[in-house]
């Protein structure tokens, strides 16, 4: 069920979501287990190259954006996938918020002091890797430059306009067929300069869950399928 969308700004709506008691993917068990991890879902306002698309949601301006990265194609785990900055909690981390900010700094070079932490959301299990991932919502108070810090880990780091993600022209379904079974999930096309990325899997599910909860989702063609191989994605 969407949160109360009475607040008119994106930041206010995200803050209300972080202060609620619902998660992004409510079909998961109430008491999941797994190795603790965290991701930073960092939103803000672009200083250049805003979206050309006018989203229907009043809170979604053309310059509202979210920080994403594309993992290096040479990695053994989830090669080439678009993700939020994040990773496992280290022994020195004080919790998922500290872990999400530390990982974001290590992966994108951002300055954590410029981030307002709006709050963590209930953790979500990643069955494939047996992690329990806490999404941490954040807002750029003082944006800092972001870039690929380690080319062995990341191929691209960019701030994607949220309106582009909501644009029905950029939405579709991803399909994985393996051992006689089929899994369907959400997909989003995003561009960073001349690069085109397909957001799918866990990251796409978190985005879809957040957009649904905030009431930002627009009708799209659920019969449109994205072929993962076309976008250089290895789903094995």
Protein architecture, described:
Strands 1, 2, 3, 4, 5, 6, 7 and 8 form an eight-stranded mixed beta sheet that branches. Strands 11-10-9-12 form a four-stranded mixed beta sheet. 17% of the residues lie in helices and 33% in strands. The protein has four helices and twelve strands; from the N terminus they run αββββαββββαβββαβ. The protein is of the alpha+beta class. It has helices at 10-18, 96-108, 162-166, 201-214, and strands at 35-45, 64-71, 82-83, 86-88, 115-120, 124-126, 131-140, 154-161, 171-178, 181-192, 195-199, 225-226. The model has no long low-confidence stretch (mean pLDDT 88).
| Uncertain regions spanning at least 5 consecutive residues | none
Please bin the fraction of helical residues: 10-25%
Over all CA atoms, what is the radius of gyration?
A: 17 Å
DSSP summary, beta strand count: 12
Distance between the termini: 33 Å
Number of helices: 4
Question: For the report, how would you describe the main beta sheet?
Answer: 8 strands, mixed
What's the helix-strand series? HEEEEHEEEEHEEEHE
* Secondary-structure-derived class: alpha+beta
Global shape: globular
The overall pLDDT average reads 88
User: Which percent range describes the beta-strand content?
Assistant: 25-35%
């Amino acid at each position: 069920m969407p949160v109360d969308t009475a607040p008119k700004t994106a930041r206010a709506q995200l803050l209300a979501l972080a202060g609620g008691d619902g998660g992004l993917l409510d079909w998961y068990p109430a008491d999941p287990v797994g190795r603790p991890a965290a991701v930073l879902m960092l939103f803000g306002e672009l200083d250049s190259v805003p979206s050309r698309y006018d989203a229907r949601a009043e809170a979604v301006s053309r310059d509202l954006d979210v920080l994403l990265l594309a993992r290096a194609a040479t990695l053994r785990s989830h090669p080439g996938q678009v993700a939020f900055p994040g990773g496992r909690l280290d022994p020195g981390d004080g919790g998922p918020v500290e872990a999400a900010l530390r990982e974001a700094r290590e992966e994108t070079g951002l300055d954590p002091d410029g981030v307002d932490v709006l709050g963590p959301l209930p953790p979500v299990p990643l069955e494939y890797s047996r992690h329990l991932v806490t999404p941490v919502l954040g807002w750029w108070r003082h944006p800092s430059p972001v870039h690929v810090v380690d080319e062995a880990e990341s191929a691209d780091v960019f701030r994607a306009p949220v309106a582009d993600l909501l644009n029905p022209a950029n939405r579709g379904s991803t399909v994985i067929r393996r051992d006689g079974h089929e899994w369907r999930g959400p997909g989003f096309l995003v561009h960073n300069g001349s690069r085109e990325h397909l957001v799918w899997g866990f990251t796409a599910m978190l985005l879809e869950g957040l957009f649904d909860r905030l009431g930002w989702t627009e009708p799209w063609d659920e019969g449109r399928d994205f072929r993962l191989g076309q976008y250089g994605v290895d789903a094995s």
